[in-house]
Amino acid sequence: MERRIFGTENEYGVTCTFRGQRRLSPDEVARYLFRRVVSWGRSSNVFLENGARLY
Predict the structure, then answer these.
(1) How far apart are CA 14 and CA 24, in angstroms?
(2) Number of CB atoms found within 10 A of residue 53's CB
(3) How far apart are CA 11 and CA 41, in angstroms?
(4) pLDDT tens digits along 9-55
(5) Distance of CA 42 to CAs 16, 26, 52, Å?
(6) Which residues 6+ apart lie within 8 Å of 43 measured at CB?
(7) Count of the separate structural domains present in the chain
(8) What is the distance between the alpha carbons of residues 29 and 13, in angstroms, rounded to a whole number?
(9) pTM over 0.85
(10) Computed over its alpha carbons, how large is the radius of gyration of the chain?
(11) 7 lies in a domain?
(12) Is residue 31 assigned to a domain?
């Protein structure tokens, strides 16, 4: 098994505004960003080939 770093995590907050007005909710933005992941993995919680977990 190759050496890996375990336990490293990144979190991001998302929002969408246009001219100061919120256009999409954070949930809608996240759904848009994860649409390809969901179509590939049938969920937004998947393990990648390198062992990383994307959710």
Answers:
(1) 10
(2) 9
(3) 20
(4) 888 888 888 898 888 888 888 888 888 888 887 787 888 888 888 88
(5) 25, 20, 17
(6) 37
(7) 1
(8) 10
(9) no
(10) 15
(11) no
(12) yes
